[in-house]
Amino acid sequence: METRELRYFVAVAEELHFGRAAQRLGIAQPPLSRAIQQLERRLGAALLDRTSRTVTLTEAGSVLLAEGRAALDAVDAAERRTRRAARSATGRPGLVLVTKASASSELLARLLDVYAAEPDAVPVDVILCGPAEQERFLREGRADVALLHRPFDSTAGLHTEEISTEGQVVVLPAGHPLAARAQVHMADITGLPGLPLPRWPMPDGTYPPGPGPQVRDHAQLMQLVALGRACAVSPESSRAHLNSNLAAVPVLDAPKVTTVIAWPPHSRSRAVADLVRTATRLQP
Predict the structure, then answer these.
(1) What is the pLDDT of residues 204-260, one digit of tens each?
(2) How many CA atoms, within 13 angstroms, populate the side-chain half-sphere of residue 34?
(3) Rounded to the nearest 10 degrees, how much is the dihedral formed by the CA atoms of 29, 32, 34, 36?
(4) In the structure, what pLDDT confidence band is assigned to residue 145 with cuts at 50, 70 and 90?
(5) What pTM value is reported for the model?
(6) Could you give the CA distance from residue 46 to residue 29 in angstroms, rounded to a whole number?
(7) Which one of 12, 67, 129, 259 has the lowest number of neighbouring Cβ atoms within 10 Å?
(8) In Å, what is the CA distance from 241 to each residue of 118, 193, 221, 260?
């Protein structure tokens, strides 16, 4: 299969409409239809069920959609990494580190300061992103390294080194009755009247069902907590950034949060290796 054919098929499979797919690809509809038919003949499988009004995926088409997306993502990532390596080879070296906004800020500051003091340090560009986006940036080749947080971020297929592990706290309005406690359990805050836990976007951009508010970033969540519209379970290090109208109480049975530095397994960058080595020395 050619990359062009995969892109054509993925567009049709996502749009489930040849006209919209052709418009998205910037081509006419007849050559798009011929390309899909040729792909089906080559694979010996029907990928789409077509009627005069609808287009649906067959079982084989569903498999190719998932595999095709992964293949195209890998091709795009390879191109971005190659371009960055070429820029480094022509005298413009540097690293791109991605991390979730508001997470691990003190740890990140220490890492950057210690690494900058290394004799062979290169400039590090930092990208601050929304929840779950740092993993995608790394896998797509938009970043060289990432700070990820288990168990919330997947590290499958990546190389990692652990940097720190910490407990979690529940963030509440300062005047809430639970704020006076020395510690709480998850059962104390799950279904708390008037203060539901938030709903974060999933990798596909949709939100899970539930009563809690939909949130996009940490700043929005903290404002909702201060207004008495939600509570939040966050890593213990988040205490350092809370305003006086918020309180944090340790949650004894919340899962521990482990911060890791992650990089693609195929990376051969000396700068990445040096940054990872610096990160491991930050461990307590």
Answers:
(1) 778 888 888 999 888 888 999 999 999 999 999 888 778 889 999 999 999 999 999
(2) 5
(3) -140
(4) very high
(5) 0.66
(6) 19
(7) 67
(8) 29, 25, 13, 21
